[in-house]
Amino acid sequence: MAQTIELYDTTLRDGTQAENFNLSVDDKVRVSRQLDKLGIDFIEGGWPGSNPMAVDYFKAMQDVELKHAKLTAFGSTRHFKNPPGKDANLQALLAAKTPAITIFGKSWDIHVHDALQIELEDNLLIIEDSLAFLRPNVQHLIYDAEHFFDGFKNNRDYCLATLGKAVAGGAETLVLCDTNGGTLPHEIPPIMERVKQYLQEIGSDARLGIHPHNDSDTAVANALMGVSLGATQVQGTINGYGERCGNGNLISVIPALVFKMGLECQVGKNIDQLYSTSRLVDELANLPHNRYQPYVGESAFAHKGGIHVSAVQRNPLTYEHIEPEKVGNIRRVLISDQAGRSNVLHKAKKYGLTLDSNDPLMSSIINELKELENKGYQYEAAEASFELLMRRALGLQRTFFKLEGFRVMNHKYRMDKTPFTEATIRLYVGGNEVHTASMGDGPVNALDKALRKALTRFYPNLEDMELIDYKVRVLSGESGTGAQVRVLVESKDREHRWGTVGVSVNIIEASWQALVDSINYKLMNDEKSKAV
Fold it and tell me: Is residue 292 part of a domain?
């Protein structure tokens, strides 16, 4: 039987320490839902003892049902001056009410002396009693041995002793951290072999994990090396986000474990969602996708001209190490119209649409999709817009309303006051003309209110719909303030959440496109529900 590997995601904690990487509480909840859907085993949500946003996140997650993943709170060993029962950090971990807790402790004697400014024996004490205090109150207790590899090189006996105290305190998994990211793959085997020998000597059956950072560009290699040597848990982040040069990239680690090492993990059952998970995190963090990223980048399975294209069309294995569909990506033959065909068929099936690969409409959809993507549209976080696009192409999308025009006015009448914003809209529902206006907190809010005001009398079900997130990304800075922008809108009602997208050089026009798609999707979805 193949070895089972646990995947531990720390995007919401370690990942958010990356420069220019920010997620709201709602974003974090959405990422958590997707990680659970992907099959991640542990989702580290944050450090409640040091970050108020983490506290808000854990409160929000108490209303979210995870099907597989175990939510994890992160923190440190107690402060030396505080007994465990009165340590604010440990109390905050328990208050997060998570089934798993991970705490880190110092493995490197230099950190004990210079960072904690306590004696080596004192550090051993706080590792053991911090874990022992938490053990009765949590289902899963994980110990991160911070700076383990550097600590081992400097003082191996002491470094191993810290693991012994973690075992004595009740940790079920000991995670060896390359916190500074300076360890190379060939250094890991002798260190891990000594760790395993030590655990045998003390009679421990604790599991081993590995937490690599990428400062030497070897985090993925180090993670895989660790697993090959007996680690059964890998900690990392989606797309490798993290402080400095980042963490081990789970998007690269997972397919290597499943397809190349033949190991079992829950994510292996849902691995075709890697691509969409990678894109969702990028979109919510408002960061550009890395087109050259292994497995999920746009160029990962792209072939352009010459013998490569000819060979790939005969047998993809000639120039591809795995089939792109396995991770949710697609093959792109840049000189033909084949790119995206399998993806469109997959989506059509998901949406309950009948579409054959030889259907003439397929080429029409592909061409429209290419044209829109060239303009800057992306649908990974806006699947509602993509479904509407396909339904329009197939002639299945009902016209719920027809826009005639809108106007948005911003009036800054006093410098010490916020602008006065009003949106006016004119549209038709059937043969009925509606002309209405609404005030709002900014142009998008005013447009949203005016649109709802115009439509609610015809479609009362719009009252239970709300816009919950709004993001703008400048697609190119070449035109300065005239640059193209992409707007992502997330909406929800009592039962569903959905994302829509708009693109334009005019931010209000792009917002309008996303708002209209959002309402159309709501009306279409409700209509489908009634028909079932």
Answer: no
Measured over all CA atoms, what is the biggest interatomic distance in the chain, rounded to whole angstroms? 83
pLDDT in tens, 372-426: 878 888 887 788 998 998 888 888 888 999 999 999 998 877 788 778 899 999 9
Q: Contact, 460 vs 486, CB < 8 A?
A: no
CATH of the domain at 519: 3.30.160.270
Angle at alpha carbon of residue 426, lines to 420 and 429, rounded to 5°: 135
Burial class (CB in 10 A: 0-12, 13-18, 19+), 416: exposed
Helix axes 25-38 and 274-284, enclosed angle (nearest 10): 180
Give the number of other CB atoms < 10 A from CB of residue 492. 17
Tokens coding 387 = 């479904």
| pLDDT tens sequence across 166-221 | 999 999 999 999 999 999 999 999 999 999 999 999 999 999 999 999 999 999 99
Give the neighbor-by-neighbor strand order of the sheet with 466-474: 466-474, 485-492, 497-504
- For residue range 17-58, list pLDDT tens digits in order: 999 899 999 999 999 999 999 999 999 999 997 888 999 999
The residues near 434 (Cβ < 8 Å, ≥ 6 apart) are 425, 426, 427, 428, 454, 455
- Give the CATH number for residue 37: 3.20.20.70
Would you call 125 helix, strand, or coil by DSSP? helix
* Contact indicator for 148, 188 with CB cutoff of 8 Å: no
- Looking at residue 347, its amino acid is K
Is 427:403 a contact under the CB 8 Å cutoff? yes
Please give the model's pTM, rounded to 2 decimal places. 0.73
Boundary of a domain, candidates 253, 284, 315: 284
Residue 373, classified by CB atoms within 10 Å of its CB into exposed (0-12), middle (13-18) or buried (19+), is middle
Q: Specify whether 221 is located in the same domain as 89.
A: yes
The rounded distance, in Å, linking the Cα atoms of 505 and 501 is 14
Give the span between the Cα atoms of 79 and 449, in whole angstroms. Answer: 51
pLDDT in tens, 466-507: 888 888 988 865 555 567 899 999 998 888 889 999 999 999
Give me the domain span that covers residue 220: 6-284
Instruction: Answer whether residue 66 is part of any domain.
Output: yes
User: Residue 357's pLDDT is what?
Assistant: 76
Q: How many domains does the chain have?
A: 2
In a domain, 392, yes or no: no
Q: β-pairing, 70-76 with 6-9?
A: unpaired
416 lies in the same domain as 279: no
Overall average pLDDT of the 131-152 stretch: 97
pLDDT at 63: 94
* 247 domain residue, yes or no: yes
Q: Which of 284, 299, 315 is the last residue of a domain?
A: 284
Same domain flag for 68 and 197: yes
Q: Which two tokens stand for residue 458?
A: 């015809």
Spatial contact of 294 and 275, defined as CB atoms under 8 Å apart: no
Residues 82 and 218 in one domain: yes
Give the 3-state secondary structure of residue 351: coil
Q: What is the mean pLDDT of the chain?
A: 90
